[in-house]
Amino acid sequence: MNTKLITRLLLGLIFCHLPAWANHPEVERDDVSMVNIPAGNFIRGSSTGMGRSDEMPREKIYIDAFSIDKFEVTNKRYLAFIAATGHKEPYNVYEEGSLFKVTDIHDLPVVQVTWHDAADYCQWVGKRLPTEAEWEKAARGTDGRMFPWGDEKPSSLHANYDRDWADKATLKPVGSLPQGASPYGVHDMSGNAREWVQDWYDKDYYAQAPKRNPRGPDKSLLKVIRGGSWRSFDSDIRAAARGKGGFALKTHGTGFRCARDMSTEHKIRLQGPE
């Protein structure tokens, strides 16, 4: 058989199993600001008596430079993804019917998304989910602080947490609590919506994880969720607190943000000491 014909048949078999949008040229499909996190060490985890057993040991971890969304993915951004791809719409937590018809929610973080929903969106915009270690470094910086804003006890000025459901008033527009931003200027990493990250969850992973660019265990039954939600207590919105859930989990308080590998030029510019 003709070699060119064989090649075309093989390519057809490959691409017929990809989502329709994967065949399109990669373009920048959202305009959210991203924050560059420089390479270098940060303090991951909690000391004995300061956190839960799955946050230990507390130690220095090295992370390569990367970029992360300044804000959680909003309903507006996520609905654009649905409109363009035909991806299944999230459950409407505000009223009956389509999320497209609900007003005054465009700047609220999207919720009721599974891990796969989050991963698909990030791929669609040419990004990826952050690793758990990347997420924690972006949330707490390099000094081991308890919360993104420091060690000060949280308040309603810092985070949206410890609340009952109040329809459209439950979640806050992204970036509306600037006093709670991380040292790098990343917003809403405590409370509002919990955030899916890339890694599988293992309660004992920290004790055996590599000290350089850890990416979680090879497999597990659960995925890591970080940051706490509008419903969480203050202990669950600490920067080191680890959550978990099955990758098909969808809740009123679980959303995500995306990350991206940094270009070689930016890596060189922001390279930190090891």
TrEMBL record:
It comes from the Bacteria. Residues 1-22 form the signal peptide. Keywords: Signal. The keyword Cell cycle does not apply. The keyword DNA damage does not apply. Gene3D superfamilies: paralog of FGE (formylglycine-generating enzyme). Pfam families: FGE-sulfatase (PF03781). Residues 33-260 form the Sulfatase-modifying factor enzyme-like domain. This is Formylglycine-generating enzyme family protein.
